[in-house]
From TrEMBL:
Organism, scientific name: Nocardioides simplex
Listed name of the protein: Uncharacterized protein
Record-linked Pfam families: Amidase_2 (PF01510)
Lineage of the species this protein comes from: Bacteria, Bacillati, Actinomycetota, Actinomycetes, Propionibacteriales
GO biological process: peptidoglycan catabolic process
InterPro entries, A to Z: Amidase/PGRP_sf, Amidase_domain
Gene Ontology terms for molecular function: N-acetylmuramoyl-L-alanine amidase activity
C-alpha cells in the first residue's frame, strides 16, 4: 500500500490550477495493491456546464451499482477546477493492456486516474479550461511519479473492453502527451 497522500500538495504547487480537496480523500481507497507508475485519462460521461461543473462528483466518490467507489483520484470540472477525490487505489482502469512504456496488468494498481467531467457520447466537448487543467494535473502527477509524458496514457489505449475515453473533442492521446510534455519541460523540470 503506497497511497498517494501527496496528491493535493503536488497540485497546489501549480499556480495555474485551482485545487479542491474532497473531504475524506486520504482514507478513500479500494482494498488491494496500489503502486502507481503512470497516469490514466478518462471522461465521466456526465453533461457538465459552468452552472454544474462537477456532475460526476457523487458517482466518482461513491461508485455505481456495478462498481464500488472511488472511481478516480482527480476529477476535472467544466470550470477547470480540480477536485482531489482519493489518495488510494481506485476503480478506474480494470485490466490494462500494455501501452507505451507501461506494462499489461492490474490498471488500478499501476495508474493514477484523472476523470474529466464531460459527456462526449452526448456530443459535449470539454471546455478549454478543463483540457488545460487536465494537462497540467497530468504533468504535475506524472513528474511526481518520477516519469515523463509517455507515462500519461488514455483509457482507450489500455482498455481490454473497448473503452474509448477520453473521447470527442478531447485531444487525441499523442497530442495530449505533447501538451503535457510542454508543461513538464517549461514548468516542472527542475
Ligand atoms: Zn475510463
Amino acid at each position: 500500500m503506497a497511497d498517494a497522500t501527496w496528491l493535493a500538495q503536488r497540485l497546489y504547487r501549480d499556480e495555474f490550477l485551482t485545487v479542491i480537496e474532497q473531504s475524506g480523500l486520504r482514507s478513500r481507497r479500494r482494498p488491494g495493491s496500489f503502486a502507481p507508475a503512470g497516469v490514466l485519462m478518462h471522461h465521466t460521461g456526465y453533461r457538465s456546464s459552468n452552472a454544474d461543473p462537477f456532475p460526476g462528483l457523487s458517482t466518482v466518490i461513491n461508485g455505481r451499482p456495478d462498481l464500488s467507489g472511488p472511481l478516480c483520484h482527480l476529477l476535472v470540472g467544466y470550470n477547470g477546477k480540480v477536485r482531489v477525490i482519493a489518495a488510494g487505489r481506485a476503480n478506474h482502469a480494470n485490466t490494462a493492456r500494455a501501452s507505451g512504456p507501461m506494462p499489461a496488468g492490474d490498471g488500478n494498481t499501476m495508474y493514477i486516474g484523472i476523470e474529466v467531467d464531460y459527456a462526449p457520447q452526448l456530443g459535449q466537448a470539454p471546455s478549454s479550461a478543463q483540457v488545460n487543467a487536465a494537462m497540467q494535473a497530468a504533468a504535475a502527477v506524472v513528474t511526481r511519479l518520477g516519469r515523463g509524458k509517455r507515462y500519461v496514457r488514455a483509457h482507450a489505449e489500455t482498455s481490454t473492453t473497448g473503452k474509448w475515453d477520453p473521447g470527442g473533442a478531447f485531444p487525441a492521446p499523442g497530442a495530449f502527451r505533447d501538451k503535457v510534455g510542454w508543461w513538464i519541460n517549461n514548468y516542472w523540470r527542475p
